[in-house]
Amino acid sequence: MTVRTIQMQQRADTDARWLQYDPILRAAEIGVVSDGTHAGWFKIGDGDTEWSGLAWAGSGLHVAGMADDGPLLKRDAADALSIRGNADADWADITVRNLTVKGVTTTIDSETVAIADNILTLNSDVEGTPPSTVSGIEVERGDEVNARIVFDEGDDAWKAGLAGSEAAISLEGHEHSYATLNDVPTKFTPESHAATHAAGGTDEVTPASIGADVVGAAATVQTNLDTHREDTANPHGVTYEDAGADAAGSADAALESAKIHCWQKAGIIPVSIYPTLHLKPDTDALPNAFTFTRSEPATYYDAVGVLQTAAIDTPRFGYDSSTGERLGLLIDPTSLDICHAAVSEFAFDPTQGTLFVEWIQKAVEADQKTIGLYQDASNRAHISIAATGILSAYARNTSGVVFSLASGVTVEAGQTYRAALSIGGENIFCVNGEGIFTSTSALNISPIQLDIGSLGGITHFLNGSIAHACYFPRALSAEELKRLTS
After folding, report:
1. What gap in Å lies between CA 467 and CA 128, rounded to an integer?
2. Would the pLDDT of 428 be above 70?
3. Between these two residues, 93 and 327, which has the higher pLDDT value?
4. In sequence order, which ranges of 230-377 are alpha helices (DSSP H)?
5. Nearest of 393, 374, 361 to residue 454 by alpha carbon
6. CB 172: neighbour CB atoms within 10 A?
7. Is 332 in contact with 465 (CB distance < 8 Å)?
8. What percentage of residues in the chain have a pLDDT greater than 70?
9. Cβ(486)–Cβ(433) under 8 Å?
10. What is the pLDDT, as a whole number, of residue 471?
11. Residue 17 pLDDT more than 90?
């Protein structure tokens, strides 16, 4: 058999000329691009379609079994391949079993990366002694300095923060010695402590901090505060006895005296005794002694003016939706907010005591109660608002009315009131620092609970909000009641 060598030459032209003349290749005829963008690529004719309508045969390889709609394996450069969609307009999806990437850089442009592994290993090629470097995760932040969580081999510690200035992370179980803590004084000194509260100090105290509300007096108050803070020469002449020290060096007595002093200086309780039950004016929570119930959810505005819904049996501490002013514990006759504390839950003296309440009246309607001591419907004492709006202190026992002290103050909607009732040898009632109303009749009841905003949690609910309330286990004097309610 004779073997003959036949050399075939295919039809060829430049990229530009193929597009210019756009010929129709015969069926199975091959057209090759000799020069231009697609140099070396070719198309195979079908006898009907112009050059521009034919798919490239030399630009990629169709995956077996996918006919004409499959993806293309495309040569992008001398050392580069890509997997494209059939139309070469987008990337094709790929699924592999195990993937090994060789090279220096792997770039992933996807927006979501889901990884099933529970441990990701960095520096997997490290053997022997670890390198003196950091390894971890870095967050790209655009024009801002990137953020990192890294392990620093040099310090043998985890660190986090802005790239280049990461700080060590204190892990659970890690302990610090006193010597390793920064900016911690080794002893308390009045001079250095006073400086922290002075103007520009780390814990500056301003007139607003202690409740100063006299219009135009802020500058004067601040000057007086600064002068007083910086005076370390005991300007009040406080003795060891004043501080609560006794012959046995009682720490409890000193602590109680310190509490009273702090309260007085903060302008919250300007009397010389600490309350044993206290609904504070700056805390949106009830003391543990209180029990609160409400059968249905109810709404309120929070500190940033957002309408919230409180769950069943959850107290609401509301704020004015327009001004952001704190209103306090909301009591509503329609939702029946019941708040009381059993006298067994706090230090209570059945022979004497003082009730104090500050509230904001929402509406004046039927008889309402603000604060009171309750045994039963026939044995009780409380500060009451009549349906006419008259504010009074009222008490009764099984024998009848013990006292009814009308203040002459007519309560109006939207206003704030402070009232206190002292019960003991002499019963004294005071409102807003003015007017003293007294009775010497003995109360003779055995209260089981202190009520806030109702009578026994049964009826006469307040329509308003309790901003501040407390109980003192001593009958305060008339002058103390004036200071307390002014």
Report:
1. 67
2. yes
3. 327
4. 251-266
5. 374
6. 4
7. no
8. 79
9. yes
10. 95
11. yes
